[in-house]
Amino acid sequence: MKLDSASRRRIEVFELRLRIELATIEAYHRVSQPEKPLLYINNVTERLSMVIGLVPPGETLEAVGLVRLVRHVYGRASDILHGRSNMVDAPAVIIDEWRSIVERLETLAGVRPAVGSN
Q1: I need a labelling partner for 93 at 20 to 30 A (CA). Which of 14, 45, 73, 102 fits?
Q2: Kind plus residue range of the DSSP H or E element containing 68
């Protein structure tokens, strides 16, 4: 079955939302070091602040800015996926921008290696 471009982009939006949730879980584990692993996460937008605990003090403002961007991406992605947005067919340029934001989050959360590291 061949998907049209709108369906592919919708799947990409869903994937980005899942990646945000997984990075948030990883940040939670790295900061809190719980005895029992967190298998799912609720209140993703609130728990994104765990990412701030992963950076040195000099990078806090940058991390806060990234968390704000990721909260926006997560909210807009959820709106698209749940039909609360008139932007059902998100333009590829927006998805590309969101992907770069999610990749920065994943790097900070330790899910993705930093650029230039081996």
Answers
A1: 45
A2: helix 60-81
